[in-house]
Amino acid sequence: MSDAERPGVLVEGELYEALPLARRLAPPALRDVHERESYRWWVLVTVLSGLFATGLTITVLTTAVPFIRDDFHASLASLSWVVSAPFLFRSIFVPVFGKAGDVFGRRRTWLLGFAVSAVASLLCGFAPTVGLLILFRAISAIGSAAVIPSALALIAVAFDPEDRVKALGWWSATIAVSPLLGVIVGGFVVEAAGWRWLFFGQFPFSVVALGLGLVVLRESKGEQGQQFDVAGCVLSIVGLGALLLVFNRGIDGDWAWTSLPLLATAILAVAALIAFVRVELKAPAPVLPVNYFRRRRFAGAVTANFCANFAYMGGFFITSVMLADTALFGYRADQVALGISPRAASLGVMGPIGGYMAARYGGRRMATIGMVLIVASMVALAVITDGSPYYLILPGLVLSGFGLGLVAPPAAATVTNEAAESDLSAASGALNMGASIGSSMGIATMSAVLSGAAATSNHPGAGAFSAAFLFGGAICAFGLFGALNLSREPSGPRSGGRARQSP
Fold first, then answer.
1. pTM, to two decimals
2. What's the CA gap between 188 and 144, in Å, rounded?
3. What's the pLDDT tens digit per position in 440-479?
4. Termini Cα distance of the chain
5. How far apart are CA 437 and CA 266, in angstroms?
6. Residue after which a domain boundary falls, among 218, 247, 282
7. CA gyration radius for the chain?
8. Do 272 and 381 sit in the same domain of this protein?
9. 435 with 309: CB under 8 angstroms?
């Protein structure tokens, strides 16, 4: 292609005209290599900037829950929805938007989802009631459900299979660093200006990330002629929504386990999910590639990611409540933020390292070590007693972050390597659906164990916190079976064509 035929500057992600003159004057073959190398890192920076912006308020709200509760005079059960609702709605809609990215374009899906998420998150700062806060958080989560699988697919298209695990290590680091900065800065923000400024301060970062996406990202899709699986989308939303509602309402105690609403919802969930699987097995372009779960490496990656996030996020929430409990530690918001920050910091450190270690030593080995570390972290936190010094809490926090940093990169790399490139967004959606459901279930069920073992509703006692941590460790131990199936190499040949890249 001659210079005259090239598109204008910054058209749908084309950075050619912005390249240095020396690179443009290089031989065509060498210039193409440089352009591809430069572009893929621009994609990673852009995608990670979006992840950074959306992640700022994910975990800081765990430290702000007691203060939001005081502001709205709401119960702890209702406030748990502020934290868990985003995970619930993300779990429901990730498969749908994952396939939408393959069919309608990953760049388009990423931009639209990110814009919705950013605006809804800003509205959280203006929420006059806890109900509207939960609603805006849910809408923001639906937008992020469109962002995450498209982002992973964009990375997978830009990077070769052997380099993906390294790029996904930086992905894991950003997942940690963004909430870490949010927690550290947010604790002081909550103390000085109130929890609403967490959302007001997040918006400028979102604007910058959205601008980068408009300038940098190029469009890519799956195979031409794919039809959007409407039946699969409807059945997945109904089935997953009903299933998560059963667990959430049943665990919170709003519905008795033998009540008519819970039983009817459970029957609806089972029927819709059975129908969903039957439809997806026959669909030419399924919204969720359920046939991939027949591959033990794909299924193992999703299982390990589910269990690791179950214990990590559940433990994050329980630790924050424990440190803020006036009968145990009585930390202020800023102290809670600094107290739990080593967990996210250790994940931020281990994310890139874990990616490179998985590339060198194998994903199975690193993920297995990571799962063991998370289990050890839950045990270390379970032995904490009333008045324990902070240095006894610290090892449990650090081990948890190190563990997830070793599990996440090889799990993501395994899923993308196992999938056909026409299904990259859908396969990434399956992985993130597992992580979101795991996070939501971890918060809900570990909170339920805490409430069930609590001495009083306001001050559960050290024994109740220990029971919650041990429960999280037991679920995470199950994930070892999934981690043992991971590998840095795909288990079989790919099917499907190359992802279609716009010129």
1. 0.71
2. 26
3. 788 878 888 888 887 776 678 888 899 999 999 999 999 8
4. 11
5. 17
6. 282
7. 22
8. no
9. yes
CATH classification of the domain holding 142: 1.20.1250.20
Q: Are residues 342 and 454 in the same domain?
A: yes
Element (H, E) at 501: strand 500-501
Q: Which residue has the tokens 């669909």?
A: 283
CA 283 from centroid of its chain's CA atoms: 27
Asked whether residue 2 is assigned to any structural domain, the reply reads: no
The amino acid occupying position 98 is G
DSSP sequence for 296-361: HHHHHHHHHHHHHHHHHHHHHHHHHHHHH-TTTT---HHHHHHHHHHHHHHHHHHHHHHHHHHHHH
Number of domains the chain is built from: 2
For residue 220, the SS3 value is strand
Amino acid at 267: I
What domain range includes position 249?
230-282
Backbone angles phi, psi at 500, to 5 degrees: -80, 125
Identify whether residues 373 and 486 lie together within a single domain: yes
Q: Do 63 and 148 sit in the same domain of this protein?
A: yes
Give the residue-averaged pLDDT of 11-21. 42
**CB of 199 within 8 A of CB of 125?**
yes
**H or E, element range at 185:** helix 161-192
Mark whether 24 and 100 lie in a shared domain: yes
Provide the token pair at 148: 């995450």
Q: What is the pLDDT of residues 112-166, one digit of tens each?
A: 988 998 999 899 889 888 888 888 988 988 888 888 778 878 888 888 777 777 7
- Same domain, yes or no: 316 and 274: no
- Inform me whether the pLDDT recorded for 6 exceeds 50: no
Contact between residue 155 and residue 343 where contact means Cβ atoms under 8 Å apart: no
Q: Within this chain, do residues 98 and 234 fall inside the same structural domain, yes or no? A: no
